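Why do we bother with a discrete structure alphabet at all? Because it lets us treat a fold like text: something you can write down, compare, and reason about line by line. To make this less abstract, here is a complete entry for Selenide water dikinase protein. Read it the way you would read a sentence in a foreign language you are learning: slowly, and without expecting to understand everything at once.
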Amino acid sequence: MIHGFENSEDAAVYELDEHNYLVNTVDFFTPIHHDPYIFGQITAANAVSDVFAMGGNILNCLNVLAFPNEIEPEVITEILKGAMDKVNEAGGVIAGGHTISTDHIIYGLSVNGTVPKGQLKTNDGAKTNQKIILTKKIGTGIYSKEININKELEDCKEVVESMTTLNKKAAKIIHKYAVSAVTDVTGFGLLGHLSEVAKASKVSANIYMDRVPLFERTRKLCIEYANGGMVRNVNYFGKYIEFTKEAKTQENINILFDPQTSGGLMIFVDEDDCDGLLRELHQEGILQATVIGETGERSDKLIKVHGR
């Protein structure tokens, strides 16, 4: 075992042979979207993202599924079909799984992947004076109710498209540049996952609120659709964070601690390579990719948030 619990890595890493590591992860949750096919796609994109964040390729997945007996079979079929199509797009296959009967739907996947030894990316690899790039917009947790209420609005469609988009392309691009650490932004929110990297890497970070890419109404909805995940993230990770006076608003706190579903990659890249990496991400259609801050020497607080 190369990586397990110690640094809150995105996945477990086991030495497979002299050239490759085996990467294992699992993720599941209750339906986030009213359409079962789209729910399956979102769930699969979210589950395989951990392997991409560690620099790997997808091999196979197993379904983890619980549902009530009275659910129409067509609903389950569509969930599984959505996931299968997304896993195939990711380069893997679904090879089976397990189901149980419960009073509500829970679905996810156990994922196996491989990564060449020279390409493994971990939480403890960030260095001082690196730029921090985020590849997707923030706000999926805030929008989780809105996308089912006003699903025809353009910003809601954009949120769904973001959650069904794989991090595969970005994960391939980063290997060309001086990238020393990567994580994906999911349930712990932007500041939670950044805290894990900063703590494991023994660095601190500055984040600039006006640079963080947001969906159109993330700020407008962040108070109305505050959620329990935000509170849990604040309670656990808040001790690591310092907000400047102008940055310390309830809106900013909710946004930066909002649990993300199938969020983007957070990439730590040497300053000299930052412009080239950002340019290629944009050229490959990852237009939301943005530099949101930089790392520095370890200080009392792991992260300082600036701006409005």
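What the structure line is telling us, in plain words: Residues 148 and 202 are 41 Å apart (CA to CA). Residues 36-53 form the longest helix (18 residues).
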